[in-house]
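Hey, I'm writing a tutorial for new members on how sequence and structure tokens pair up, and I'd like a real worked example in the thread rather than a made-up one. If someone can provide the structure for the chain below, I'll link this post from the tutorial.
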Amino acid sequence: MDTVTQALLGGAVGFAVAGKISPRKAVLWGAAIAILPDLDVFIPYDNDLTAITHHRSWSHSWLIQTLLAPLFAWLLYRFDKTVQFKHWWLLVWFALITHSGLDALTVYGTQLFWPFMPSPYSGGSVFIIDPVYTLPLLVGFIAIVFRPNTITSQRLIKTGFTLSCVYLVWGLLAQNWVSYNAKRDLAAQHIKTEKILVTATPFNTLLWRILVVDNDVYYEGFRSVFDGSGLDGSGPIKFTQYKRNSSELINALQHSDALKRLSWFTNGFYSVKQVENSIIATDLRMGLEPIYFFRYHIAQTENHAINVISPMRIDSERRTKQGVTWTWQRIWDPTAQFNSVSNDTNS
């Protein structure tokens, strides 16, 4: 989730722990502590793929955060003893673990149990920026900062925190409903599935993207909570098939550390394609066909041989206004089409 939202969540958590002792201090320290995990973006790494896949690793691990919380609490207690050590401890711990927990609900991938290395958890039930989630927290935060001791301010932050939690629950329920419909429609259309991922589209939890991977192909479909009629979401989801990779490419890249890392990080939701002399690996989870946020040049062909190179991120096409407009239209209209021409991802 974006850093501003993480700070606001930390402020609400801080108030829940120590708001009765010092409301303003609780929200400000909660906000400050909550942004600490994201400081890992400033750590330099050897290449672009390593940097992306190490973000949300050790700094977001519940195990590491649980070990560090007493140390941070001790430092804060030495600085300010008007708040008891146990309250500092709880404030720090909850601010850190709720940061990671919220991130895990997005699709990016969060390594909650680092240094153990299962594929990062990428829930996908909320987008990385969602104003509906953030705004209630913002109202309560501002109220406490400027008028910390009024009943109205305390009601606002409690209500905002409650509404934000309810919104996350709604996202999980909607995601499960869409997953149920997607699996039913895939079976009805005789589409084989190896993996299925259902994710919220930008800035909302009303329109959902369904990504299906099956060996050398993948499928993309969309479902709005307003599609069809009735609780069963009647009206089949339309899935469009795209080429994912070729056996020849995968065999040639079987010793590529970059491809292994990407496969682990995305839990298999990636594609590999050759564009002229370049081998491009794409994280299929973030974006929509044919525009994706994370694409990497991982190998080069020369004299009919494939040479692995240090992975370099490729700048993605930016069509934010068009994407947001289409998302809004598609929420209400199942026939709305996203018209974009890709220079390579559809090849």
